[in-house]
Automatic annotation (TrEMBL):
It comes from the Bacteria. This is RHS repeat protein. It comes from Gilliamella apicola.
Length: 94
């Protein structure tokens, strides 16, 4: 027994972690199974009422996907939002 979490699964999410001999994280695989339920992982809303969210390594919102399109968020080095790109199914604008 290593004392590390190597896998996790619930009804709508799974994750597998692999480590080297020095306990450094080598690989992380995760996935989301489709469901109508809201999903929050690591204090981040991943899906809610048909909306899907993704986050960057700093925990900032990277994208928000809706039925009509996707919004992409871009930040500067000080974590301020500097650009919001909206791609609608029919067109895209900034």
């Amino acid at each position: 027994m290593t004392g590390r979490i190597e896998s996790y699964r619930n009804e709508s999410y799974w994750e597998t972690l692999q480590y080297d001999a020095a306990a450094n994280l080598l690989d992380r695989r995760c996935g989301e199974e489709e469901s109508n339920q809201n999903l929050i992982r690591f204090n981040q809303q991943l899906s809610f009422r048909g909306l899907k969210y993704s986050y960057d390594e700093h925990g900032r919102t990277r994208s928000k996907q809706t039925a009509s399109g996707t919004q992409y968020y871009h930040y500067d080095a000080e974590h301020y939002l500097i650009e919001l790109c909206i791609e609608e199914l029919e067109r895209s604008h900034r």
